[in-house]
Design goal:
about 675 residues, alpha+beta, 5-stranded mixed β-sheet, about 20% strand, globular, binds 2-(butylsulfanyl)adenosine
């Protein structure tokens, strides 16, 4: 067998094992054996870059190249479904269908309504060629690169099956509860904001700019709608069974109903039992099964007449409100929280519920002692949705008013225009805010002091060892050995990574000090424009406004920051500890605007620099690195083994392909042969 044949064989084999493992849940080989086959394929693919294929099983790990999603029209609009909320409305739907079919018998396919985000997958000759989000229904974002990392989505279908040469299959991308819990636990440990529910987590993940992140997050997908010219069956149910044979994950919980009664039974069953499913559902979908009948019923402008969604009622329970307490988050946002008598709700005991903000508290008009209704919808945190009755004792009292001072430091709260939350503005004096600022300072994209976690920072703060981030640079081994109970190795690691952070480039120091509204990009822009902290601290509003990407909000915030004596002192202390307060000589020399206004795609394998380094070079010379080729692309920076799809597209659009030597000459200001 030639190496080429072996590559093809391994790809088929690995696709099949992948399907057995992730879709059927019944692997036929062990993990180790699987890894060996995968390694063999990786090795052979490295030897044969000319045979590279974006749908190879080796591509499931994703890439850390930035994705810039392109918007692409759907070949058939992605409609949504009309919603119903009770039996009456379901029965009306059933009747409308019966009338529309003039008494002809019909069946209804009952399915779970998955609570994720819809996706449309396009296959040509059994190969996944494109994955689009719903977008506005007419056009969606091209998320193919990210979708390729979802293990339950087949990249390449087995040959010789009855799928048509071209078809589209739609479904839902989801984050299973186990992945969701793991992700949130991880985010909590890193002090990042939690996702409220699996749907938000799935959607945030699928829109991630980095497909390697997507690969790690454990997304899943269920497919529920097959479309195309020559699809095999006459009914929706048959088509989905066929899709399952081809390798798609289709729910096992679909059921055909021939009467309204059977539909009700399906709804009642899943209303009770859905909490046992590994994924979130928010209702039931009912679809007329026969495709001929679907066609004869047709569509309205927004949704098909042959299908409808029934939404589950969120589970509710009643209990007594005991107290309203207020939590101050790391951003200073104040959240009211209700403490209640424990009550069982959707399989867990609930004692606390969020009241969101002052408007919600006011609208509910709660008094301590009230009987309240608690609900758990798609969100993991239960909420109070209303008052059942007010206790006799509280009858004459006024409803609880929102607090006016910070519960931690007593500073009067402020409410910024257009925001629902109240904030404690005492950034430099209120403990949760101080901790928030230190956590931001040490975070990965700022100073990246990764041996320190939020808990250790909390601990040091409680011990009085640190009051701001500059204090970190004054910590000694003796001081730290006390609170951590003598783990010398751990302490040394912490001190070492604090020392190492002194090498972090200036633009990240500027981001780390936490000027309001100065995010990573603004910090980069300001650093490149002014070159040093001093120059930024003394820059005028007018001069900042001349910079592309800096508007009044950011510029004013920078001015306000340096107007405060305390902030200037803080920055001076950082300077005295040796942090980078200016662009390095190298960075300064490396800059130009030779690529200003150019959009550049990077593809292939390089010799002189890594991809990331090329990305930085592009930015340093004023260009923009984009993920995919379009008419707007200025040129492709191509290494060896450029992806065949990219190559073809670039050629089709007549976009210049530049090799790395020419590129390096170009940014160095030397003319390339082409330009002569
Ligand atoms: S069928 C034309 N089936 O619910 C029919 N949709 O409110 C298209 N959804 O946008 C949709 N589970 O994102 C269908 N079993 C299921 C579904 C489902 C979840 C979502 C889908 C759609 C929305 C409609």
């Amino acid at each position: 067998m030639t190496e080429e044949e072996r590559i093809r064989e391994l790809r088929e084999l690995l696709h099949r094992h992948n399907y057995n493992y992730y879709v059927l849940n019944s692997p036929t080989i062990g993990d180790h054996e699987f890894d060996l086959l995968m390694h063999e394929l990786q090795h052979l693919e490295e030897l044969h870059p000319e045979l590279s294929d974006p749908n190879s099983p080796t591509q499931r790990v994703g890439s850390d190249l930035a994705n810039d999603f392109q918007t692409i029209p759907h070949s058939r609009p992605m409609l949504s479904l009309a919603n119903t909320y009770n039996r009456q409305e379901v029965s009306e739907f059933y009747q409308r269908v019966a009338d529309g079919l003039h008494g002809e018998p019909f069946q209804v396919c009952c399915e779970l309504k998955f609570d994720g985000l819809s996706i449309s997958l396009h296959y040509e000759e059994g190969q996944l060629v494109r994955a689009l989000t719903r977008g506005d229904g007419v056009q969606g974002d091209d998320v193919t690169q990210n979708v390729r990392t979802i293990r339950t989505i087949p990249l390449s279908l087995p040959q010789s099956m009855d799928y048509p040469p071209e078809f589209e299959i739609r479904g839902e991308v989801l984050m299973p509860w186990t992945s969701f819990d793991r992700l949130n636990a991880q985010r909590e440990a890193e002090g990042e904001q939690l996702f409220a529910n699996p749907r938000n987590a799935a959607s945030g993940t699928l829109k991630s700019k980095n497909s390697a992140t997507v690969a790690q997050r454990g997304l899943d997908a269920y497919l529920y709608y097959l479309l195309g010219e020559n699809i095999p069956g006459d009914s929706h149910y048959e088509n989905l069974q066929a899709a399952r044979r081809w390798g798609f994950q289709v729910s096992e919980h679909m059921k055909l109903a021939s009467t309204l009664q059977e539909i009700y039974e399906y709804i009642d069953y899943w209303d009770k039992n859905r909490s046992s499913l590994p994924i979130a559902t928010d209702g039931i979908v009912l679809k007329v099964n026969s495709l001929a009948q679907q066609r004869s019923l047709g569509m309205t402008a927004k949704s098909p007449r042959w299908a409808i969604a029934y939404k589950f009622q969120a589970e509710q329970a009643q209990t007594t409100l005991r107290q309203i307490v207020y939590q101050v988050g790391r951003t200073g946002a104040v959240t009211p929280v209700a403490n209640m008598d424990p009550v069982q709700l959707a399989g867990t005991t609930v004692r606390r519920a969020t009241l969101h903000n002052a408007d919600v508290v006011q609208a509910l008009g709660l008094r301590v002692g009230d009987q309240v209704l608690v609900e758990k919808g798609g969100e993991i945190i239960p909420k109070i949705v209303g008052r059942a009755e007010t206790s006799e004792a509280a009858e004459d009292e006024a409803p609880t008013a929102f607090i006016t001072r910070c519960p931690v430091c007593q500073t009067p709260l402020v409410r910024y225009e257009g925001e629902a939350a109240h904030y404690c503005p005492n950034e430099n004096g209120c403990p949760p805010l101080i901790l928030g600022r230190i956590e931001h300072f040490i975070s990965r994209k700022a100073m990246n002091i990764n041996s320190l976690g939020p808990e250790t920072v909390d601990e040091y703060f409680r011990q009085g060892l640190i009051r701001d981030a500059a204090d970190l640079y004054e910590l000694s081994e003796e001081q730290l050995l006390r609170p951590t109970g003598g783990d010398q190795k751990g302490v040394r690691k912490i001190l070492q990574s604090i020392q190492e952070s002194k090498q972090v480039p200036f633009e990240r120091v500027l981001y780390a000090i936490g000027i309001r509204f100065v995010g990573e990009i603004a910090a980069k822009t300001l650093a490149r424009s002014y070159g040093s902290m001093e120059a930024i601290a003394s820059a005028s509003l007018e001069s900042m406004l001349e910079i592309n990407g800096i508007g009044t909000v950011i510029a004013q915030s920078v001015i306000d920051y340096f107007a405060e004596e305390r902030n200037r002192r803080f920055v001076e202390r950082l300077r005295s500890h040796g942090l980078q307060m200016a662009l390095s000589q190298e960075q300064l020399q490396a800059q130009s605007d030779r690529l200003a206004g150019r959009s550049i795609v990077i593809s292939g394998v390089f010799h002189h620099h890594s991809r990331d380094e090329y990305k930085t070079l592009i930015e340093q010379h004023g260009g923009k690195n984009v993920g995919s080729i379009s008419r707007a692309t200025s040129f492709v920076l191509a290494g060896d083994n450029m992806g065949p799809a990219k190559l073809e597209k670039a050629q089709k659009l007549g976009i210049e392909i530049m090799n790395e030597d020419d590129f390096l000459r170009m940014i160095a200001g030397e003319e390339t042969e082409k330009n002569d």
